[in-house]
Amino acid sequence: MDMLEDESLLKSRTGQGPEPSPGAARPAWATAVLATVLIFTTVVDVLGNLLVILSVLRNRKLRNAGNVFVVSLAFADLVVAFYPYPLVLYAIFHDGWSLGDTQCKVSGFLMGLSVIGSIFNITGIAINRYCYICQNFSYDRLYSYRNTLLLVALIWLLTVLAIVPNFFVGSLQYDPRVYSCTFAQTVSATYTITVVVVHFFVPIAVVTFCYLRIWIMVIQVRRKVKSEVRPRIKPSDLRNFITMFVVFVLFAICWAPLNFIGLAVAVNPEEVAPHIPEWLFVVSYFMAYFNSCLNAIIYGLLNQNFRREYKRIVMSMWKPQLFFQETSRGGH
C-alpha cells in the first residue's frame, strides 16, 4: 500500500497522474473566477494581438523599426494564448493535470518563452525609443531594416537560451495552486534568484534608465532648455513614447508581485515559502497572466494610428474588400 501511495505522489509531481487537488479547499466561486479571468485574457489576447500584427502589416506608415519590436512583443503574448492558457483552463475544469509530463514540460517551456520574450522585447522597445529620441543622429544607422531584424532575432535567441537551463534544473513542474505547469520557485534558491535578477530586475533597470532619459529630454524641450542643440520632439513621437511607457509600467505592476514572492522564497525557502498565503500567490500569478492581453488595449486607447487601423480591420468583416486595401496613412 505504501509503495502505491509513493508511486501516486511521484506521478502527481511530474504531471503524470492525479495531484493534490486544491479544489477541495478552494471555494467553487474562486475557481470560477480564475477560469473567467483566464478565458477573458485568452480571448482578448488572441483578438487584440492579431489586430496589432495585422495593423502593422496593413499600414505602410506603421511598418517602421520601432513597431517591429511591437509585433515581436505581440507574438510573445500570443504564444501563451494558443497553448499554455488552454491547458491551464483544461486543468481548472478537470481539477488537476491529466495530460502527461511531456505536455507539462512543453506548456512550461512556452510559458517561459512568452514571459522572457515579453520582457526582452519591452527592453528592446525602450532602447529603440531612447535611440530614436535621445540619439536621433545615429538612429537610422543603428536601426536599419537589416539591423532591426537581427536585433529581434537576437532577442529570441537570448530568450530560448534563458529558458533551456530549466530542463537541467528540473524547475518546470505542475503547480496545483495555479493549475499550471510553470517555474517552480523552490527547486533551487540560487537559480530562482538568478532568474528573478537577470530576467526581471536587470531588464527593468535598463528600461527605467531609458525612459528616465527620455522624460528628462521631454521636460527640457518643453521648457526650451538647450533647445538649440536638442532635436524637437514631434507630438506623434511623444504619444508613441507615452504608449510604450504605459506598456512598461503595466508589465512591471503585473509581474512585480510574483517576482518579489519568488525572490523572498529563494532567500529562505524553509521559512518564507510556508508563510506565503495561497491567495496571494494565486492572485500574483493570474495578474501576470492577465498582462498578456493588455498591450493591444493600450495601443488602441493611446495610439490613434492603431485605433484607426483596428476600426478598419473590424469593418472589413462586413466589407471584406476593405481588408485587402493597404493603408498608407498613419504615423511613426
**Low-confidence runs (pLDDT<50, min 5 residues)?**
1-24, 328-332
How are helices and strands ordered from N to C? HHHHHHHHEEHHHHHH
**What top-tier CATH class fits best?**
Mainly Alpha
Q: Work out the number of β strands.
A: 2
Distance between the termini: 68 Å
Q: Note the main sheet.
A: 2 strands, antiparallel
Please tell me the CATH architecture by its name: Up-down Bundle
- How much of the sequence lies in strands comes to under 5%
Round the mean pLDDT to the nearest integer and report it. Answer: 84
User: How many separate domains make up the residues?
Assistant: 1
CATH homologous superfamily, by name? Answer: Rhodopsin 7-helix transmembrane proteins
CATH topology: Rhopdopsin 7-helix transmembrane proteins
Number of helices: 14
Structural class: mainly alpha
Computed over alpha carbons, the radius of gyration is 22 Å
The coarse silhouette is: globular
- What is the percent of helical residues? over 70%
Strand sequence of the main sheet, in spatial order?
Answer: 1-2
GO molecular function, one term: melatonin receptor activity
Keywords: Biological rhythms, Cell membrane, Disulfide bond, G-protein coupled receptor, Membrane, Receptor, Transducer, Transmembrane, Transmembrane helix
Membrane topology: Multi-pass membrane protein
Family: Belongs to the G-protein coupled receptor 1 family.
Give me some keywords for this one:
332 residues, mainly alpha, Rhopdopsin 7-helix transmembrane proteins, two-stranded antiparallel sheet, 2 strands, 2% strand, globular, disordered C terminus
